[in-house]
Amino acid sequence: MSAEPIIEAEGLTRHYGDRVAVDHVNFSIARGEIFGFLGPNGAGKSTTVRMLTGYIQPTSGTARVAGYDIVAAPVSARQHIGVVPEEASAYADLTVWQNVMLMAELHSVPRRRRIERGAELIELFGLADRREQKGRDLSKGLRQRLMLCMALVSDPEILFLDEPTSGLDVASSHIIRDIVIRMNRERGMTVFVTTHNIEEAGDLCHRVGIIDQGRLVAIDTPQALRGSINARRSVEVRFADHVVAISDLIDTNAEIVPLADGFRIYTPEPGRLAQELATRASGRAIRIASLNTLAPSLEEVFLHITARAEATEPERARADAR
Amino acid sequence: MHADTFPRLRRQAHAAYVIAKKDAIIYYLKPPVISFGIVFPLFFYLAFAAGRTVPTGVMVPGIVAMALFFTASAIGPLVTPWERQARTFERLVTSPASLEAILCGDVIAGMAFGALLSLVPLVLGLCLGAQIGNPGCLLLGIALGALAFSSMGVLMAAPPTNAPSQIMMLSSLVRLPLIFISGVFVPHADMPAWGQWLSPLSPLSYSADLIRVGFGGAAYFPVSLDLAALMGFAALFLGTARYVHRLTRDWAH
What we know:
The structure holds two protein chains of two kinds. Chain A is α/β, with parallel strands linked by helices.
């Protein structure tokens, strides 16, 4: 990954009438990075992608994609990107091959190159034996794979994926994730992906931005985001023989979640607690099957951050009114 | 001029060609569309001419102009609403094709379809004894007429809707009245005064006039006015379509 930014947004804002869909969003994405954009429904994820891909114009603020201003030179910027818009579809009346070639021709990919690359991609996405099948005859998962082929046939520097695995079967989701990672590693392709699947973002992305009510409320690596919430760190203990009441081991007011064969205890100091649990269990001859300290899941981080943003919204409104 | 201007224009011209090809495959080259394009104007005209003594020299230019008008403007109004409905429009707009290239591609497809299908009544007319008096005017009448009518279709597709039925209604409301004020059924000289006043507002009047001259008939407007008006209408329709698209691109969301 290079430090050179390939996508930069500065004060990016979009209004729909009185409603602010995206509110002064700033971020910078490095060349070769996989960047995940998370947020609840209606948070402004798709609107941000639509601005970055030049489909709609920002109300204010600027963004540069592949070195081009998306307002002043949207067509030049689009020459360097591949897009899989949310809920968009391939042409139902064109065959798989015709759909891929259409996009290659729109990107002015030379004839020989587009035929080679198209054949490579439909093979890679498991569509080679459906080459002459029309778009209308494909299942949702296969259509989404076709959309990826269409986006990748021009070998874009940047790939925008808006909810690429939403509602897909496990196999299609897996193929899409694997190929995105492979394109990133082998070709250095930058990927901007919006998703609801938080754990997927954690596995796939180098960095994650969380947008809520149009505002970017957090941006960091998944590991750093997980580490940012001390209160959601925990210790998970599983017993070998039978479940022991936690009060038999320690006195604590911490949040405890019972498991089938043990407990998860939330604490800002998981190391100290784990040590204490091991010592006491050993003293009482209780056999422990496993004892782990856990960072919060990205889902917990997401819920924590968006809940905090919601809680501070009335304060913001009061401040705005002043 | 910027050094990148010509390569950029070439790329956009190629994109317009690709879009026209896509439109032809998906929307135009369908048996029902082709049959409609041939049969509808023919029967429409015959319904008017039945029982009346209409000389071939009047009938053939009228049918050719009608066929051109109906076919060139028939599908254009529906392409964008269909694409919005099928959720393929956003994909197209986020490709490197500019809005102008997309609109030009749609116009080229409608134009080619209209011009090609108008050859059917033209050849039929020649077989029935009609004669070409001025091939240049005939060719320009068909080519520029196809351009203006196709551009009109593309303008009708610009409102931000993903319901093709709404545009179909608008299209019929606009296109049918134009036939009656364009000198296709009734020669301009025989029209009532209000018809003669309204006739210059229809692009079909100028195309029909040129086609009539092409078949050796008399011109109602000066030929230079016919040419300028058709080019002016095409520019006006395309410019307005571009403006409406830019203004309302995201209203359909």
